[in-house]
Amino acid sequence: MQELHPDYHQLKIPVPKEFESIFTYFYYAENSSLVPVTKIMLPSYQTIMLFCFGENAFMTTQEKNTVEVNQCIVLGPVRQTFDYTLPAGTSILVANFKDDAFYRFFGKALAAGNGTHPNELLHNNCFTELWHQISVFPSPEEKTDHILEFCKPYLQNQDETIHLLSHFENPALNPIKAIAKQTNQSERTIQLKHKTKLGYSSKELNRYNRFLKAIAIIEKELAHQKKIEWFNIIDECGYYDQSQLIHDFKHFINLSPSQYVKFQDDICRSGSA
Q1: CB-based contact 28:10 (threshold 8 Å)
Q2: What is the helix (H) or strand (E) element at residue 237, kind and residue range?
Q3: CA–CA gap between residue 36 and residue 134 (Å, rounded)
Q4: Is 249 helix (H, G, I), strand (E, B) or coil?
Q5: Who's near 129: CB < 8 A, 6+ residues apart?
Q6: Which residues contact 74 (CB under 8 A, 6 or more apart)?
Q7: pTM for this one?
Q8: What is the mean pLDDT of each run of 10 residues along the chain (273 residues)?
Q9: Chain centroid to CA 28: how far?
Q10: Do 59 and 74 meet the contact criterion of CB atoms below 8 Å apart?
């Protein structure tokens, strides 16, 4: 099948082991064509820091609010899909903060909205300088390496409760209740830490993970050119019925499950796999 945008290139850049608790990976996209290209970015429930090189890029939310990206912007946690447009000759590099890493870097969780320049969060001009520094590197891998070195002095230690929450893997238990009991704290205290340092509630994350599991199954079946068995997905992901599956897709990406399959070529994922 012919590519819709053969001059649009993208890749995911893994991070060294020492940074695996800070970033999932970096996402790079470049429009080498002569015309603007618009893509859809899936929600990641991660806070992202996006660097733009070339002409200003544009991001449009589901509410049709458009943000012009000049040099750098932070946004998140990314709860819903958004469109982004890269003009001809423009590229972006996206850093995906893992769990509470954004809080450990900036000392606060970012409220989801239309994005903020990171200079405003640190009250200095260091990110403008960082943008100028990484602009001279020819490859996205070199840009990524420089950003990682830049981050080292700013990072704070991870809160032990957040560490337990981010590594909780027993689906049969409520993580808030289990960790409250384990650490001898109230459930309300655990809930507040979750919201303050991660930027979202445990309930929100559970819903997103269920949706993400459905996405993963769909992508696997498409990769093997299999027919999508929607009722198997409903059962395997724990949805009550088809309408609840459709409702989650509409909530997160403003598309029905069948529309998601149809528009696969225009959908990108910068965050966790």
Answers
A1: yes
A2: helix 230-237
A3: 23
A4: helix
A5: none
A6: 47, 48, 49, 50, 102, 110, 115, 116, 117, 118, 121
A7: 0.79
A8: 66 92 92 92 86 93 84 84 92 91 73 61 71 94 94 81 83 87 92 84 87 90 85 92 94 88 74 54
A9: 13
A10: no
